[in-house]
Amino acid sequence: MPVKLAPHVPKMASDEGVIDAATAAIGDDLIEARDLVGEITLVVKRESIVEVCRALRDTAGLEYQQLMEIAGVDYPDRPERFEVVYHLLSLTKNRRIRVKVSTDEATPVPSVTGLWPVAGWLEREVFDMYGVAFAGNPDLRRILTDYGFEGYPQRKDFPLTGHIELRYSEAEKRVVYEPVSLPQDFRTFDFLMPWEGAEYILPGDEKAQPEAPGAPSPLPATGAVASPNVKTAAQTPKTTDGPSQTGGGAPADKQATKEARKPRARKAESEVSKSSPAKAGAQEAKHAAPRGAPGSRPSPGNRKGDA
């Protein structure tokens, strides 16, 4: 079933016939052409990169008018360790192609700034990261790293720590450059649990003073190796074999039934009040007067007379 694109997705021309057209346009400058996972890659001669890019841009049917990116790749095991990769885009066909050349540390690659002025900055990035020179670039300077940077950080043999570091000096009130000094040396880890008995002495353990066997104490150290703790027999665990030892059984059930059958008012009297002290005192005064006692509740006549 063919894939249906949404209406807003721009149409792309098929790559069918692109390799044949590129081969005819480039001629002997083409070393290899391959189509993998829907992407066409051309490997061409280094000294012919300008003519190859011009042919890909100006040949009818190819029309790769725009240079999108220039990238570098480092393969230290190869005689020509660096690959310079050009990514081109066809605006009229809406398709892309990749062009590769190889070089070493000493041989420059011809610049394509005469075809695409934007290549000036892209070539400077590759030069800054890999040290690949481009013959004909009018301003081949570093563009990403800082002033005075040593080396090329994207090379596989470049040290991870670099060569110099910069920091703000409070004493000099400015940013200073210094050789890299690691605050901690690289360590090798054996993944052994310290409490399972490491086969090495941790840094600082050699400074520890010998102690008397057992827990640390003010006793003088004898230098003898402390004997391991002797396992003692565990005490007999305390168990409850009968209700009489737990306070349960028939007596407890009888008492619980009796408490459960009490009226709600009686249960409330036995509970501890959690209200404020003033309220608690009022409740105690109320409960102190017996129910139905004379004078415990003023009659309407008394209230009227008081008024």
What would your notes on this structure say?
The termini are far apart. Strand 8 and strand 9 form a beta hairpin. 23% of the residues lie in helices and 18% in strands. Among the domains are: 118 residues, 2-Layer Sandwich (Beta Polymerase, domain 2); 37 residues, no CATH class. The strands form 3 sheets. The protein has a 5-stranded mixed sheet with strand order 1-2-5-4-3, with helices on one face. Strands 6-7 form a two-stranded parallel sheet. With 307 residues, it is of the alpha/beta class.
Task: Explain the layout of strands and helices.
Layout: H1 18-26, E1 30-36, E2 39-44, H2 49-58, E3 66-74, E4 82-90, E5 95-103, E6 109-110, H3 119-130, E7 134-135, E8 164-169, E9 174-179, H4 243-246, H5 250-260, H6 264-270, H7 277-288, H8 300-306
In short:
With 307 residues, the chain is an alpha/beta fold. It is built from eight helices and nine strands.
Key phrases:
alpha/beta, 307 residues, 8 helices, 23% helix
Helical content (DSSP H or I, runs of 4+): 10-25%
**CATH class identity of the domain at 18-135:** Alpha Beta
Q: In CATH terms, what is the architecture of the domain at 18-135? A: 2-Layer Sandwich
Calculate Rg over CA atoms: 45 Å
